[in-house]
């Protein structure tokens, strides 16, 4: 799967509208009772970034970015305008001295663990609340290496989301001299 380690233009993503989407089948019986079947173990993020296209420069930037990604063909980093920070989140042990960055959502009744695969450079690893040094981070996978187990290991920092466009067609309308419109520009998380 082709993936480019470049970030979608943040001036456009800050106007994005969206969040997690789930896939649930609700079956209703004749008596009115229902049964719910959740197909996905976690939400998949989806945004519409149309609102973020505000100027001729942002349209030009979007056209360049879309063409370089060849529509849905190539993935890219996307900065979720709302959820891009982790504070004292757990590390998931993979094997030996190797760990995966994660972020946990939920409440006392139910939690959802999200694997963080596109961290931004300035990550802090903590053991029992104290910063730890001597480890390495793969910023393309979110895997931390050379980190000895012991105590409570957490991390803090910023992260992006691996995404792709949800269309292969760019349809821009010229509405006025300096006003362009693209009805729906959907970006979806790559799971």
Total number of helical segments?
Answer: 2
What does the main sheet amount to?
14 strands, mixed
The SSE order reads EHEEEEHEEEEEEEEEEEEE
State the low-pLDDT regions, or none.
none
Structural class: mainly beta
How many beta-strand segments?
A: 18
Chain-wise SSE layout:
Elements: E1 3-7, H1 10-13, E2 17-21, E3 24-28, E4 34-38, E5 44-48, H2 56-69, E6 75-78, E7 85-95, E8 98-106, E9 111-115, E10 118-119, E11 124-127, E12 130-131, E13 136-138, E14 143-145, E15 153-165, E16 172-176, E17 179-182, E18 186-189
Parallel strand pairs: 1-6
Antiparallel strand pairs: 2-5, 3-4, 5-18, 6-15, 7-8, 7-15, 8-9, 8-14, 10-15, 11-12, 11-15, 13-14, 15-18, 16-17
Entry summary:
The protein has 191 residues and is mostly beta strands.
Task: Please tell me about this protein's structure.
The chain is 9% helix and 49% strand. With 191 residues, the protein is mostly beta strands. The chain has two domains: 3-79 and 163-189, no CATH class; 85-159, no CATH class. Strands 1, 2, 5, 6, 7, 8, 9, 10, 11, 12, 13, 14, 15 and 18 form a 14-stranded mixed β-sheet that branches. 21% of the residues are buried.
